[in-house]
Structures are given as C-alpha cells and as structure tokens.
Specification:
This protein has 16 helices and 15 strands. It is α+β, with helices and mostly antiparallel strands and 396 residues long. The strands form five sheets. A four-stranded antiparallel sheet has the order 12-13-14-15. The protein has a three-stranded mixed sheet with strand order 1-10-11. It has a three-stranded antiparallel sheet with strand order 2-4-3, sandwiched between helices. A hairpin with a 5-residue loop joins β3 and β4. Among the domains are: 114 residues, Arc Repressor Mutant, subunit A (Orthogonal Bundle), CATH 1.10.10; 100 residues, no CATH class.
Length: 396
C-alpha cells in the first residue's frame, strides 16, 4: 500500500493565504463570503467579527451590521468549546445539532447545580425548567429584550451566584444571563440587535421563530459533526485529529466518526504525522507570493488549529497565546506569525515584531497597519484577551 500524499508546511501556509482570503486576488466580496470561507467567525469579543471581515474583504461596520441584524444571514451562536461564533444561516442546523447541543447539555447540568449551591432553589433542574419556560413565554410575542429587562420582569430569573471564593477578584453575578445562555445554545432564542457600540456586546434576546420567521431544524449529532468537519477540512485542512478535537471541543470518537462520515482523505504532514483533508481536496495551491496580514484577537485563522508550529514559533507562544490556547492580535508574513499589533490612544495601529522578518515584510506590515488604521477611523477597541505582547509586559 502506498503512503498517503505529503502536504508540506509551505503548502499549508499557501492554503492559509488563499483559502482564508488574506491575499488581494482572493479577498472576499461580502461578510457572508468571509464567514463561509472561515467556517465561522469568533464572536466572543464583539469586535473580532468586524475586524475578521474587514481584513479579508474591506467590509465596513455597516456591512457587518447588515449581515447580523438586517439580513440575518450571519448568526451569532454558542457552539464549539462554549465559544460564541458567527455562522452563516445554512450552517446553523449543523451547529445546533452537534456542538451547540453538547454545550447546552453541559450548561444545563452546571447551572442547575450552581442554583442549588447558591440557595436559589432546592431542585435545580426544576427551577431551571421553570426559568426557561418563563423566558420563552415572555418572548413569545416577538419582543426583543435585554438580559436586564428580562430579569426585572421575570421573578423566575432572580438570584445571584458567587465567584472567586472571597479573593480580590471575587464577587457576585446575576444568574439570569446563564439561563439565556442555555436557551441560546439550544437554539430556542437568538441574539437580536446589539444595544451597544459595535465594539461592545449588549444583545437583546428574541424568540428564534420571531427572528427568522421559523425555527431551523437541527441535524442529528452525527450529521451535524460531519458537516462541521467537512467545512473545517475545506478551510483548514490538512489537520490532525488533535486539531479537530480541540477546535470542536468534542470527543475523539465523535471526530473519528465525523471524519469517516465526511469522506475525509488521509495525508501526511512534513513531520510525518497523519492528517486529513476534504475528500475533494487534491492538488497544491499555487504559491501566492509574499503577503502580509494583521489579524485581530481570536481570529479564526490563528485559532484554527491546536498544533500551530507550522505558522507559530513555539518560542513566541508565551508572548501571544494564553494557557487555554486563546491568541491575541497577530502579524503575519508569508504564512508565519512574526508578532502582533496594538492601537495607540488615537486609534493608530502599531505593529510589534517578535523578530526581524526583513525590510520587505516590515514595509508590507506597515501598509497593512495604515489600512487598518483608516478602517478604525479613530475608534479604539479594548480586549479581554490581551496577550503579554499586547500588554507590553515581560514574560514571568
């Protein structure tokens, strides 16, 4: 039996340039085009959806708002790894039946136990069922309400949880948003319009049927995972089982079944490890030539794999990535991360390099910084996931 085809690291980096729409001839035509190309856009930090679209397709804030809130062609949904993503609507049934369902089940058990520990209810599951029913009844008329408004109107959502166990960062939080998280993961309610600035998250919640004019039918768990894996391979392949287990936040058995169901093809990487590509993914991507990109915090390209050595020097990981694998801003040259970027007080983008990639790279990255500065137009975005590089802190 012949060995599986080899996919070199150079070829993997070329695929990033072309398939992730990071080189000009392949830039995206719309927010929907960007989202489909990347499978989903990270939305835990509200600004990431806007910036991931901007760097790949010159998409404006208004373009992203239209897709999210007017056309509703891109939908925010809690899914893989209990992370909020923006999916195209056609992919929502797959997510709801697989990754979102897994998160919803985990959160239901967790919140019920937390409610009992906090003294909110003696029977956590029964309390949670009543709270969810109250929310659905209130939203049945098609209203869109914030978590605060729902908590004020529904006594079933009263109560607080403690965190931090008396530490300096401890405190209390309302349990109402946690109930909404469960209903959102189940696809029973959706995040409607955002009551805040585009760089912040203040969603109003609405019944799914009211938001879409009907409720999407979730796929079965195996079907959903097979669809997600097939789409991931089309964008990120080749990838390993470890990459997919991490990206999906799922089990190895679920990944193996999805690889088989999606008809994935076996390949080998440059270091000899086995990996997978989409069934139709044959032939090399042409060399895209030199390219530069500045990507935001939690961008789907940087977050696409667990095993990142082919584009991220292990020596740079502590400066750019936290212990959970979350990555800050990144500066790319020819498919490798060479640093990150920050904004000055006036909104100007400044590149911070970890090494000297040469004068051509510096010039190209500065051009990207100028392009992004123009896009920000003076708006400064803060981030929860600031890397050590972004903070300007020395490594401990």
């Amino acid at each position: 039996m012949s060995a599986p085809p080899l996919v070199t690291d150079d070829q993997r980096r070329a695929r990033i340039a072309v398939r992730h729409r990071l080189v000009r001839p392949h830039r995206a035509a719309s927010v929907e085009d960007v989202t489909e190309a990347m499978v989903a856009l990270h939305a835990t930090e509200p600004a990431t959806v806007y910036l991931s679209a901007a760097v790949r397709g010159e998409c404006s804030v208004e373009d992203v708002d239209r897709a999210l809130y007017t056309d509703r062609s891109v939908v925010k949904q809690l899914a893989m790894r209990r992370t909020l993503f923006g999916f195209t609507r056609d992919l929502l049934p797959a997510a709801l039946g697989s990754a979102s369902a897994r998160v919803a089940e985990q959160q239901r058990r967790l919140i019920a136990k937390e409610a009992e520990r906090a003294g909110i209810a003696a029977d956590g599951p029964r309390w949670l069922a009543a709270a969810c029913s109250a929310v659905l009844d209130r939203l049945a008329d098609g209203a869109a309400l914030s978590a605060t408004e729902l908590r004020e109107q529904l006594p079933e959502l009263a109560g607080q949880l403690s965190f931090g166990n008396g530490t300096t960062y401890g405190g209390t939080i309302n349990i109402a948003p946690r109930v909404l998280t469960v209903l959102g993961a189940e696809g029973r309610i959706m995040r409607a319009d955002n009551a805040g600035h585009w760089r912040t998250s203040r969603p109003r919640w609405i019944a799914t049927e009211a938001w879409f004019g009907g409720s999407p039918e979730p796929l079965s768990e195996p079907e959903g995972y097979a669809v997600l894996v097939a789409r991931w391979l089309r964008t990120f392949g080749p990838g390993t089982e470890n990459d997919l287990v991490w990206w999906l936040g799922s089990t190895r058995s679920a990944v193996r079944r999805a690889l088989a169901d999606s008809g994935a093809g076996a390949v080998r990487l440059e270091d000899g490890r086995p990996a997978w590509v989409a069934s139709e993914d044959v032939g090399d991507v042409p060399d895209p030539g030199p390219w530069a990109a500045l990507l935001p915090v939690l961008d789907p390209t940087a977050m696409g794999w667990k095993e990142r050595d082919f584009y991220l020097d292990p020596a740079d990981v502590p400066y750019l990535v936290d212990t959970n694998g979350n990555i800050g801003t990144t500066a790319w040259w020819c498919g490798r991360v060479v640093g990150g970027w920050v904004q000055d007080e006036d909104g100007a983008v400044r590149v911070i390099l970890r090494s000297d990639p040469g004068p051509d790279a510096v010039a190209a990255l500065e051009a990207e910084a100028a392009r992004l500065t123009r896009w920000f137009d003076g708006v400064v975005v803060s981030s929860v996931y600031k890397s050590h590089l972004m903070k300007g802190e020395p490594m401990p």
